[in-house]
């Protein structure tokens, strides 16, 4: 006779075992009180991010027009993110056309709020969101990341431990809860990544899903679908772009993010099972959005795009699925797909992104292929933001 398994006890034991193992792993990767630090960038990387040639960057240094930066014994320059911002300001001050180097919001431009979402886990949603945020920040945009997933993967990637750092308070939940919400500014954290602030996620966000039905019965205002948009109003002047990393289900949190958004990026892995799942997701989304639209929510978006993720160019069936999606949705499928890459997954082992890791840690062609793919995707997102601003 086999022993009876009490699922609640077993799951709790497994959760505790896994939590201890992850804590041990984090202590090996980062010192107990350490925070992540962003690496420095080579002259070639700096020039690409600034939108100039390396020879012009050298000339700026030769003419003493830009700040001194760290130089290796061999004479190679290495730039931190603050150096890039300083050089960007210098270039903008002498540019012939406004916004050539500082491409963020101007007077009259509305805050761009992007939701990365999918109904199915494993679609690369968080990976896409954080790489987009980091690329935009490196190009001079002021970015706020908002993690509305109770699993808080985005928060973890910024070097926090949600189950310890924000166990009872300090997450975005504090700003959208129905009883005594706090100003969003009170929960926003500076991150190690220059140009990016974070409103952390955590398990407390599950309470929002549980409390909303009662709040609807009580007609608590603002309604659930307006709470994220309302909380953003107090801080929107500080940012050019807000990025929501949504949970992999269509709950009240996701609906609230959609109703606060100006653009939506639906991540999809090009295989028929994922596409079938996405079909259900889109149908359910439409039905629920009809309901909140009738309740007064704004449904005006600047763009909606399908972001193809984990794409393998040599995979025949994937090519067929991508062709199928392009025939159906035409320009709503992004031109650039995000390639499946061992470099991206290997970086994730130490809770890092491709933009954080050094090229020397990887096979060069693998790293370069991943970076080129991500840059194409994220620069396409940037062009959509610019178009929304009328440029």
Tally of alpha and pi helices:
15
Percent of residues in helices: 40-55%
Could you say which structural class the secondary elements and strand pairing correspond to? alpha/beta
- The largest beta-sheet arranges its strands as 6-7-5-8-4-9-10
Number of strands: 10
Task: Please summarize what this structure is.
With 391 residues, the protein is of the alpha/beta class. The protein has helices at residues 7-29, 43-50, 54-62, 81-93, 125-138, 153-157, 162-165, 173-176, 206-218, 227-232, 252-260, 272-294, 316-329, 342-348, 364-388, and strands at residues 41-42, 70-71, 77-79, 112-117, 143-147, 189-190, 196-199, 241-245, 263-268, 303-308.
């Amino acid at each position: 006779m086999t022993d009876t398994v009490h699922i609640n006890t077993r799951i709790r034991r497994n959760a505790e075992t896994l939590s201890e193992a992850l804590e041990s792993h984090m202590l090996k990767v980062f010192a107990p009180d350490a925070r992540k630090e962003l690496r420095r960038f080579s002259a070639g990387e700096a020039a690409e991010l600034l939108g100039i040639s390396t020879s012009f960057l050298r000339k700026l240094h030769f003419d003493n027009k830009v700040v001194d930066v760290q130089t290796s014994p061999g004479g190679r320059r290495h730039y931190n993110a603050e150096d890039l911002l300083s050089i960007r300001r210098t270039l903008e001050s002498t540019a012939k056309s406004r916004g050539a180097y500082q491409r963020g919001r101007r007077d009259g431009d509305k805050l761009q709020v992007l939701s990365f979402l999918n109904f199915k886990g494993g679609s690369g949603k968080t990976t896409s969101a954080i790489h987009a945020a980091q690329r935009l920040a490196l190009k001079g945009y002021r970015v706020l990341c908002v993690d509305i997933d109770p699993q808080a993967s985005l928060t973890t990637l910024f070097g926090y431990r949600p189950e310890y750092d924000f166990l009872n308070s300090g997450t975005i939940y504090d700003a959208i809860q129905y009883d005594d919400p706090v100003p969003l500014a009170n929960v926003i954290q500076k991150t190690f990544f220059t140009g990016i602030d974070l409103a952390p996620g955590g398990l407390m966000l599950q309470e929002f899903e549980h409390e909303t039905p009662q709040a609807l019965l009580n007609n608590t205002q603002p309604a659930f679908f307006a709470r994220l948009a309302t909380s953003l109003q107090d801080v929107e002047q500080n940012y050019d772009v807000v990025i929501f990393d949504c949970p992999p289900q269509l709950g009240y949190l996701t609906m609230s993010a959609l109703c606060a958004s100006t653009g939506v990026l639906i991540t999809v892995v090009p295989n028929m099972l994922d596409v079938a799942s996405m079909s259900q997701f889109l149908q359910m989304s439409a039905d629920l959005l009809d309901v909140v639209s009738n309740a007064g929510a704004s449904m005006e978006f600047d763009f909606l795009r399908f972001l193809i993720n984990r794409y393998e160019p040599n995979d025949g069936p994937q090519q067929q699925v991508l062709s199928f999606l392009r025939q159906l949705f035409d320009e709503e499928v992004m031109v650039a797909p995000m390639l499946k890459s061992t470099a991206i997954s290997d970086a994730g082992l130490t809770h890092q992104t491709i933009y954080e890791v050094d090229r020397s840690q990887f096979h060069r062609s693998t790293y370069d292929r991943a970076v080129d793919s991500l840059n194409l995707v994220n620069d396409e997102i940037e062009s959509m933001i610019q178009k929304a601003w009328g440029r």
